[in-house]
Description:
By secondary structure, the chain is α+β, with helices and mostly antiparallel strands.
Amino acid sequence: MTASLFGDRFVGRREPAWHRLGTVFPQEEKVTATEGMKKADIMFGIDKHPQIVKMEDGTELDTGSYAVVREPTHDDPEHKVLATVGKEWTCLQASELGKMLDPISEQFPIETVGAIGNGEKIFLTMDAGTSTIAGEDHELYWLVADHRDGTGAMSIAFTPVRVVCQNTLITGLKSSKVSVNLRHNRSIQTDASFYLDIFNQMARTQENVVSAMDTMTKTRLKSKEVEKILTSAYPTASSPTRLKLSANISADDVPSNVWKRILTDKKEQKEEWQKRQGRVDRIKDNAKERLDVFNQEFPKLSNTSWAVYNAVVETEDYRRGHTASGTTLFGGRAEAKARAFNTALELV
């Protein structure tokens, strides 16, 4: 159990695949989506409420924005504000999502159910069987995630996991071959129902993705191509905003006392950027080390797109700090893996 999870609301059939994020329950127990969410205790409701600014004189101003509010739970007996959203944002209740997924989960049993933070994200993984990719056994899943923080959509992504090391290969991709994103607008219930109807085509989608991954094992890359994949996963750190704003200011543009302050601030901001870039470089170096290990373990696959991609995946799944956040499934770590996958596939 990790500190980032919402109380004890996490149920899983197999511990390693999701990097110790879950608790185990009997594997022979076939669980539907609704049953899984009840077991994980994530059936809490959310609602949208107008946000009002109250002035000192008591006047109330309508902001035109809304708060997404989670109802109290047995272990957190207060309402929690999850996000600020616009007028068109529409709630999708866990019970509604469960009802949509129940027919599918009869064929693809629920593997894991969880919530992150205060309930900003809820997710389920569905067991889609096994397959051989690049000569290795992989467990196949569909990851269904609903983002209630106003920054993301409801997404459904195909996610293979390497059995030998439990690397979670795909979670953040937006490729139509792999996933779909449904915005929280007034038609989300209809849209979600429509998309879930096409789960009957999942076998074909899985076949396409597995085939694409197999093609990544066929060609050895040149050094500059290996570097291209790693750079796509770990791009240059962004400059601090104040450093960007002051970049074109010269001593002739401002009074001398202001210029001195600008120079001091530039130095501090440059040091901050160097720290950011240093962190990127260290992670990138770790990925290079993982690639070297992969090449030694699998010489027939050395320096292929598959090798470089897996080096990034393993770096993101297991580097320090992943147990304190959900970013191996969502966020920065998943996005790094997605960028590496897209670039690796382009070089096939």
